[in-house]
Every structure is written in structure tokens, then in C-alpha cells.
Amino acid sequence: MVEYSEFVRLSRSKDSDERGHAAHLAALAYLDHDGPADEHAALYAALIGFLDDPSVKVRAALAYGLLHSPQAPRPIMMALLRDSAVISRAILQYSPLLLDADLIGMVPSGDPSTLVAIAQREKLSPRIAAALIAREDMALTQRLVRRADVALDEALLLDLARRLGDDATLRGALLARKDLPAPARLILVQRVTESLRQARIVCGALAPERLARLLRDGADTALSAIGETEAVQARRDFVEGLVGSNQLNTRILLHAIVTGHVMFFAACVAELAALSREKVFTLLENGSRASLVALFSRAGLDAESGRLLVRLVLHARLADLADDFAARHYVVTALTEELIAEYDGIIPPALEEAFAYLSEQNIALARKAARGVMSAFAGSATMPMALPPAETAEHFQLPAA
Questions:
Q1: Do 315 and 173 lie in a common domain?
Q2: Global model pTM greater than 0.85
Q3: What is the DSSP letter of 8?
Q4: 1: pLDDT strictly greater than 60
């Protein structure tokens, strides 16, 4: 406890440290006050008096006492906001009293330290975050994008992906956000693909054809995985955008089924055929061969590609393609063998690209399905490995020297 006479002495001291101590005591006493109204008014008047103290140390002590409290007097906090830079930045960063209306006017003309202080506030509205990003300071933008607690508008995130997606650091921060819209995620995946294609360490490690194949498969897998997430959440914009920009083709439809992204496949067919997703999914699950042919014809696919997809759907009904690589390998192998048998080894030109894709996938799926099989078998087998008898080489006798 401090007597009022002692407080007055400290307030009038020539020592700035003592005046700063008095200012801090007054701030704490004001915030915790539960006594008479005249006492509270006297404390408020004392706080106002410290605003005119010539020492920045005193005003900083006052600000420190009030800084984190939502009960701090707003007029005093607004006065401290216009004080020296060290005090102003602290108020900007920590005071819960500041409103968007207080902050928005400071963003367009604020210096970098001011902008960083605002960006570090515990709670930041989408409006203020967008205004900060509009300053086009890359470091500040990265800081805000990394904050998962700050909501950013989907249109803003899409714009950042389009304009700044070539920056690897920002690209990583954007991809880490759970609220990143699917079109923006697809753009960033495409930028990653191009970055890998141009990276010297990647180009030097893989032959050009293999690199192109791996990147193409990775991009297709990413596209179908993004589409699957959107389809599961019943969002139509992503598939509508793919159809509207002519990014859908037979290869992507095949890849969606082969990778087990059946919801995305159904959404694509529904959009192409202008049918409800529920009806298309029912047809894919239980429809006859004739109804599937009609469905893919309505979706605008040529006859050969339509029949190929019908075969794939019928095989996929009997296997779990979501997680089982062996099932995927079986389905692709069966489909490939059927095509070879049907066309007697002469694949029609309309199916050559699809057939090449299936052949590529068959190799990749065979490798994935084979991983761990031998080690698992060796761990359970009790008999030795059966090997053919070794052939004994005929020995030749050399004549004596």
C-alpha cells in the first residue's frame, strides 16, 4: 500500500524513475479500483496528468500499466497511440481497446515497424490483414499468411497464389493453410511442378522422359486429390472451373479412378453430362453397361474412350482402389490385357494415349504393390527357397608341361 501523500511526492519528483513508478502505480490502482467514485475520478485525473510528463520513461511506464487491459481509459490509450514510436508500437501490438477503425487509417502510411506491430496483434480481422497485404511487402505478407488464426478471404488467397506463387517461401506458407481454396492450391501445385522441372538437381538426377512422366503423374494425382476433397465437401466450384477452362481430359478421368478418387470422378462426369452428382454416383455404383455407355456419351466422350471408362468402372466395382495398391495393379493389368485381346494388339489411335497411360501406371503400381511382399513372406515362410540344381562345369585336363 502507498499513502496518497507518498504518491503525490513521487508524482512531483524531479527523478523520472520515481515519476514513472508513480505513473505505473496509478495505472494499476485505476484498473483495480472498486472504491468511491471521487477516488476513481482522482486516479483518472492523475493518469491524464502523466500524459504531459516530459520524460518518455514516465509515459512508457503509464502505457505499460494500461497496455493489456480492456478496461483502460480509451482517451488515454488513444493519446499514447500518438506518442513516441516505442510507446505507439506497443499500443498497436497489445492494446485490446483498438478497433479496426483505429487501425485502418494507419496502414496505408505506416512505416515498416508500425505495420509489423499491427500484424503481430493477438487478434487481427480479415479487413486489416487484407489492408496490410495490400502494402505489397513480401516479408509482411509471409508473416500474415503463416498466421493460421487470421482469416483471409478466398479471393485474396487466390490472388496471392496467382501473383506470388513463384516465391517458394510464400508458396509453402499458402499450402500450409487449411482455408486455401482449391483453385489456389491447384495453381501452387502447378508452380511446384514447374520449379521441380527447372531445378538443376532434379534435371541432373532423372532422364528427361522419366522426369516429365513423374511430374505429370504427380500433378494429375494432386489435381484429383484436391478434387476429391472438394467433392466430399459438396463444393462444385472446383470442378466447374476445370470444365470451364477445358482442363479435364480422358487421362485425368482415368487417373481419378485408378487413384481411388471416385467422388471426384463422379463430380467430373456429372458436370460434363449436366446431371446431378447423386444420379451419376448411383449409375457408377449399380448402372448397367448400356447405361454407363449412355452416361459417358452424354458427357461428351468419344465412343472408344467411353467404352474404356465403362470397362474400368466395372472392374473398379470389385476392388478397393482407395488404399490397396495391389487392387489398383490388378485392375489396370486386367484392363490392359482386355484391350490387347480385343484389338488383337493393334490399339486404335483414339486410345493410344490412354493405353500408354495405363502401361505407365501398371509399372508404377506393380512397384508399389511389390514393396514389402518378399520380406513379409520371408518372415512367415518355414521352407528354404526352391532353386534349380547348380550345373557342374566340365573340368578339362591340361597336358603335363
A1: no
A2: no
A3: H
A4: no
Residue-wise pLDDT tens digits, 194-253: 988 888 888 777 788 888 888 888 888 899 999 999 998 888 899 999 988 888 888 899
Asked if 194 and 220 sit in the same domain, the reply is: no
pLDDT of residue 39: 87
pLDDT of residue 366: 81
Residues 60-66 have a mean pLDDT of 95
Helices 182-198 and 154-164 pack at an angle, to 10 degrees, of 10
Distance, CA of 299 to CA of 398 (rounded, Å): 79
- Whether residue 278 sits in one domain with residue 217: yes
Q: What share of the chain is helix, strand, coil (3-state, %, to 5)?
A: 70, 0, 30
282 and 362 housed in the same domain: yes
Cα–Cα distance measured from residue 113 to residue 99, given in angstroms and rounded to the nearest whole number:
19
Instruction: Give me 1's grid cell.
Output: 500500500
Q: In this structure, are 287 and 335 located in the same domain?
A: yes
Return the exposure string of 203-221: e unless at least 16 CB atoms fall within 10 Å of the residue's CB, then b: eeeeeeeeeebbbebebbb
> Residues 6 or more apart from 58 whose CB is under 8 A from it?
16, 19, 20, 23, 50
| Structural domain that includes position 99 | 1-121
Is residue 342 a part of any domain in this protein? yes
